[in-house]
Amino acid sequence: MKFGPKSTVMAILTAAALALTACGGGGTSTNGGAATTTLTIGLLQDLVSFEPADAHIGHTMPYYQAVYDTLILRAPDGELKPMIAESWEYNAENTVLTLKLRTDVTFNDGAKLDATAVKANLDHFKKAKGRDAYQVASLESVAVVDPATVAVTLSEPDPAFTYYLSLAAGLMGSPAALGTTGIKTVPAGSGPYELDTTNTVKGSQYVFTKRANYWNKDLQKFDKVTMKFLQDVTARTNAIVSGQVDATLLDPKTSKQAVAAGLTLTTSQVDWQGLLLMDRDGKVTPELANPKVRQAMNYAFDRKTILEQQYLGEGTPTNQVFGPESGAYVDELDGSYPYDPAKAKALLAEAGYPNGFELKIPTMTGFEAITATVQQQLGDIGIKVQLETIPAANYVPDLAAAKYSAAVFNLYQAEPWVAINQMISTSALYNPFKSTTPELATMIDAVQNGGEQSAEKAKDVNKYVTDNAWFVPFFRLNQMYLTNKKITVEPQLQQAIPSIYNYAPAK
Amino acid sequence: MVTFILRKLAAGVVVLAAISFLTYFLLYFSSANIARNILGEFASQEQVAAKEIELGLDQALLPRFFAWAGHALTGDLGTSWFTSEPVARALMTRLPVTLTVVIVSIIFIAIIATALGMAAAVKRGWIDKAVQSAAVIGDAIPSFVMAIILVTVFAIQLKLFPATSSISPDSGSAAWIASLALPVLAIVINGVTSAAQQIRSAVIKQLEKDYVRTLRSRGISEREILFKHVLRSAAPAGLTVLSLQFIGMLGGVVIIEQIFALPGMGALAVQSTTMGDIPLVMGVVLYTVVIVIIVNLLVDLINGWLNPKVRVS
């Protein structure tokens, strides 16, 4: 037999047709007019387990919010509102928090969500030492006052405790299931949705269906919620542009593509990016002990241009590490360190280092561009930066182990007390050299014991760390959240991805 | 024949043991921060130390390896350090996805490459030139670039296929096929041309041999010569290429799985390796090596069946 051109072409066509047959299943269904009853979200991180003690603030919270209620609800603007707790109140010393509970809430296994269940959850969360166990670090004991009242005793005032009760520490699981292996894959909660185990594929998609007789219909706006784990930004872009998901987080570049395809962009600011100047006592890099050196480094960066070039301008240059909505933000601090290399050089000379010095900073996948910029900008004022590439998994542990005097990082702009414990107090992970001064310690004390005034008092801490140049903040980065026309979403303060309560069908 | 298989299997066991140890050895040196990464940034040093003892990370390399190997020999691959999911179960949910993609791709590549390669070798002329230039282009365009082009055209513009995986147990075979069509197509386009090229050279080589001339002189039809003799003699070369492609695909499918968000072995391997989830990484390596050994054994057997000379040597 001879292969003529015709038969060859036919063979190719047949093969291609084979590959293409039965492919009608794809595509998306559009619903004409009527409001949608389903919501599909594309998430960046996979769920580790449904055990509440394994919950972690950030990209995995939606999985938990679907199936668990929290004691307190955090509104999109950050205000704490009643949820399972109808009201709460501190004693005069801010050490005992009394919570009054709803009495009409049950778990999906039939158990009642009462004071005993709340105690079981908080005790378990503390004992299990999960990723967010720091949230209950100050928790000393929980007492059941009556079936609808619990009294939580703290070892010391914790201005962020009620905030934590709206996050991982506040997730309420059925006491009988807590700590079992079963709850890791099948949640047992009182939340607005239940896991549809037959349609859920671990590592790919999680399907939730509306729970019958849920106590708060306002928080249950869809019949079905699907969360797809889409790690890759290209996959997320393709998924939202093709209509497979209704909402997802992209980056400045891909969001341009999505907006061009007719999707709605909502931006919010969560992280600040910049240099942490951690060795403020000069233990490893003696030069960093001098505030003038640290200030000089702040004058060395042309923040606006860097933002334009690396993030397409999606963000706001800043000189402070507290966010505008945190309550500790001080407007005029943002004029502290304009781009002024001449002044930076003068300050270095004043500090006794006219020829600069050497500084080693780490870099990792994803940080190459920004660390190269740091190297170049600090090089311009005479500081020779040596970059050391380390695996991403080692980055945080190495910072925490005080292996570097300074490092580039993105930190989220949290509530003042959370932020202080994240990077400023002596127990903060991102203060590995444990730098402090008596003056600053007094200010931190004032925040801790400030009660209602806590955020206001944190302004002093903000001024102190900005004036003394503890950090070189570059900018607050925009989070690019995309949604299609079927749904609406309200961004959640200090969260890159909104809480699930913030989504609603488009009218 | 039986001794041949037994010998191959024995060699496979040795390879398996060696690779397991080597992997464990390499992971041992990057296991410094695992406990910290499991517990999160806010855990205290004491908690981290306690976790390290719990996971056995405080022990030396050999005791750790033999403890793992001992369990693995009894079929217990342990549980993931990060998700507490049993390793065997995690692999069993992922493996079918990856194997489906790879096997379906390799079948398409085999059929299309053989047809193209033979056509090019027999016909020469324009089709030969086309196959040769396509081979260069196919090699030059990585499968992930092809994947992105395919998604843009077929999923986003034409809306014929889902852009990312929509596989779930209830979705049925239509959804499976729809989800796998683009990933498979991307791999096939990338792999088929180089395989066709190899088959083409193998067939040409056979066609130039004396026995072909002898057969022709005896008046045996071209068709019979081609399918009964030439193809059979050229097959080992083609099989080798395909088996190498198959093994390469097991690793290369990682990026394809990412782009299409397919819940396969690739994503699992990348995630577990970057996090330092040693039991899971070991499970992935073990399964992959077993697959490679089986594929090699099958190729050897098919070669033997096609060509008795191979069996003797």
UniProtKB/TrEMBL annotation, chain A:
PROSITE patterns the UniProt entry points to: PROKAR_LIPOPROTEIN
Annotated compartments: Cell envelope
Signal peptide: 1-22
InterPro entries documented for this protein: Peptide/Ni-bd, SBP_5, SBP_5_dom
GO molecular function: peptide transmembrane transporter activity
Major subcellular location class: other
Gene3D superfamilies: Dipeptide-binding Protein, Domain 3, Periplasmic binding protein-like II
Pfam family, one: SBP_bac_5
Keywords: Signal, Transport
Biological processes per GO annotation: peptide transport
Residues of the Solute-binding protein family domain: 79-414
Residue ranges the record marks as coiled coil: none
One cellular component (GO) term of this entry: cell envelope
Family: Belongs to the bacterial solute-binding protein 5 family.
UniProt name for this protein: ABC transporter substrate-binding protein
Species lineage: Bacteria, Bacillati, Actinomycetota, Actinomycetes, Micrococcales
TrEMBL record, chain B:
Keyword Manganese annotated: no
UniProt-annotated location(s): Cell membrane
Domain ABC transmembrane type-1 span(s) in chain numbering: 95-303
BP term (GO), one: transmembrane transport
UniProt keyword Secreted, yes or no: no
Pfam families, sorted: BPD_transp_1, BPD_transp_1_N
Transmembrane segments: 9-29, 99-122, 134-156, 176-196, 237-260, 280-299
Membrane topology: Multi-pass membrane protein
UniProt keyword list: Cell membrane, Membrane, Transmembrane, Transmembrane helix, Transport
Annotated CDD domains: TM_PBP2 (cd06261)
Domain of life (superkingdom): Bacteria
Gene Ontology cellular component annotations, sorted alphabetically: plasma membrane
PANTHER family: DIPEPTIDE TRANSPORT SYSTEM PERMEASE PROTEIN DPPB-RELATED
Similarity comment: family membership: Belongs to the binding-protein-dependent transport system permease family.
Listed name of the protein: ABC transporter permease
